[in-house]
Protein 1
Amino acid sequence: AAGVIQSPRHLIKEKRETATLKCYPIPRHDTVYWYQQGPGQDPQFLISFYEKMQSDKGSIPDRFSAQQFSDYHSELNMSSLELGDSALYFCASSLSQGAAVGGNTIYFGEGSWLTVV
Amino acid sequence: KQEVTQIPAALSVPEGENLVLNCSFTDSAIYNLQWFRQDPGKGLTSLLLIQSSQREQTSGRLNASLDKSSGRSTLYIAASQPGDSATYLCAVRPRGNKLVFGAGTILRVKS
C-alpha cells in the first residue's frame, strides 16, 4: 500500500539559508500534518492542512511557512535557518471522518533529516 | 494544556517475556489515542488506534487498553522478540488536528 512520501530524505544547509521539504500524502487522504522531532525529543506539531486550507497551527516559527497544493501535496518552507532547526521533520496524513467519529489513524512518512551547519 | 507521560523511560527484557508499557495523559477530553513504534532514525509506524469510546484494541501480539476517565493507556506486548526493540510512543488527539506525544519508552529485547 502507498505510504506518505517525503523528500528529500536528507538535507544539509548552512545558517541563514532556506530549505524546502516536500510531502506527498497517502492517496485520498485529505489532511496533512507537519511535525518536528529534535534529537532525543518527541515529535512536536507544527501545522496541519485540511482540504488545502490551514486547519491547525502549533509551535511553528514565523520563519517557517507551509502550504498544501491542489494535488494535495504539501511543502514546508524554512528560511533564515538556525542551528536549532536541525531535526527530523515528519509529514503525516489521514482521512478525516469528522470530529463525531473520533478521527482516523494518522500515518507518518519516513521523515526528512535537516542538518544546519 | 495536555501532557502525556510514558513510564518506564527505558525497559530491557529477555526474549519471550510479556511486557506492559504505560501512558498517562492529563486531560481526558480526547478523540483517540494512538500507539506508534519508532526505530532509530526512522519514521513512526502506527501500531494501534483506540477511539475515545473504545476500551481496547488488539493486533497480533499487541493489545492496547484505554481508560479515558483516569487518563491512562497501556500497551501489552506478548512473547516479546528481539525485533520488537524500538522506541514506543503514545500520542493523544485532543480537539483539533494535532497529536500530543509522550517522550516514549525505549524497549530492548535481548536474545
Note: The radius of gyration of chain A is 14 Å.
Protein 2
Amino acid sequence: GENVEQHPSTLSVQEGDSAVIKCTYSDSASNYFPWYKQELGKRPQLIIDIRSNVGEKKDQRIAVTLNKTAKHFSLHITETQPEDSAVYFCAASGRGTGNQFYFGTGTSLTVIP
Amino acid sequence: SAVISQKPSRDICQRGTSLTIQCQVDSQVTMMFWYRQQPGQSLTLIATANQGSEATYESGFVIDKFPISRPNLTFSTLTVSNMSPEDSSIYLCSVRTGGSAGELFFGEGSRLTVL
C-alpha cells in the first residue's frame, strides 16, 4: 500500500517569512496529491492540490511542487500570517491505492507575530 | 464540493458499549470513506464504505469491531463496537466527489470519549 512521510512535524516561523513542508510517497501509481489545513477542533480543509501531470501549482500565497521521479511533493507558504497557524497534512491517492487517500503524519505550523 | 453531516458530533460512552455514527451527504457519491484521528495524530483510513456490498477494511481494522453500512449513495453508518478507552478518538466521514479524479471532503467529525 501507499506510505506517505511528512517533514517536519513542527515548524515555527516569524510572520512574513516563508514555510515549506515536504512529503514523500512510495507508490509510483499515485497521481493526485492534496494538502489539507486543520485548525484546532475543526475538520481538515482542502487548500491546494496537484496532479501528476503538473510540476507546480500556485494559489495566491500557497504553492505546491511535485517531483514524480523522486516521489516527493512540497507545500510552500509565502508571507506567512498568524492565521496560517494550523496543522497541515499531505496526502496521496491513485489507482494503486484503490483511489483511497493516505495521509502524512502532519506538520504543526506556528506563525509568530 | 459536498455538504457532509455527521451525528453525533460528540459523545461520552461507557466501556463495553457500542455507538453508531451516521453520515449524510447532500448529493450522491460513489466513494465514501471512514477515517479515525486519534488526539494529536494524523488521519488513518478505517475502511471504504461500498454501496450494496461489504466495506473494504484497512489493515488493522476488522468488521466485527467497526461494522459499516452503506444502504445508498448518500448515507453511511460506522459502528464502534465493544468500546474501550483506546477507541477514544475523532471519527470522520469523507467523500470523494467527481469520481476517481475528484477531491476528498470531510464531515465535521464525531468525537468519542470512552470511559
Note: The two ends of chain A are 41 Å apart (CA to CA).
